[in-house]
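User: I'm writing a short report section on ligand binding and want a predicted complex to refer to. Could you take this sequence and 2-phosphoglycolic acid and write out the structure as tokens? A short remark afterwards would be nice.
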Amino acid sequence: MIRSTRNSILTFVHASREECERALAAEIAECVARSPFAVFGWATGSTPIGLYRELASLHAAGRLSFARASCFNLDEYLDLPAGHPHSFATWMREHLFAHVDFARAHTHLPDVHAPDPEQAASRYESAIAQAGGIELQVLGIGRNGHIGFNEPGSTRDTRTRVVELAESTRVDACRTFGSLDAVPRRAITMGVSTILAARRIRVLAFGRAKAAVVHALLHDAVSAECPATFLRGHPGVELHVDAEAAG
Ligand code: PGA
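Assistant: Sure. The structure tokens for the complex follow:
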């Protein structure tokens, strides 16, 4: 593992994805061991799958318990029926919640089935604040620079809200949904400022497809054109990449 700081972002280039996942899982286990009521922020997508597998195996080995912890997911699709197989709620159940011991009432995703999604978004923002804020946020980055579903054009002051998905995000989601028509057009996402309020942010990026956006995060001007660049200057952010994403 090589450690360096670029533009105020502490960057770890790991020899493999697995090394990175073990390191982050160990940090999460240590965090919850020290603060059992810790609040975590989770991401979905292909990037964090191995991390969640590692958390599940630490739990199975009796080395990690989320029994008193709570968590908030970054985002959720709007306009899918409840229980849809490609909703992030289903995804989180399959990849994490079924394998660890969070109390169900302590796992939160935006309420995309509420009659008024904008109100549901503000309630989500308040619920995070009432829980004491997020201690550690796990974050992927989209190839277009999005964090959560804060697509290009999202400003630093954005809060949890209803957003339209960028075309490139919907094209990337075709892998999961099978066709572009099946991919939702809207979501509720934590805003950029909601994410920046987390005390620790752990950004993960793996594979050659992420090399360009990792470069932009570390070197481009800070701008809403690449919302990930707003992470620069956050005192608790770390970027964890494999050699391919490091370019
Ligand atoms: P991915 O998505 O993990 O599936 O690459 C990352 C993101 O869009 O935030």
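A remark for your report: Residues 2-246 form a domain with the Rossmann fold fold (CATH 3.40.50.1360). The helical segments are 17-34, 49-60, 88-95, 117-130, 167-177, 192-196, 211-219.
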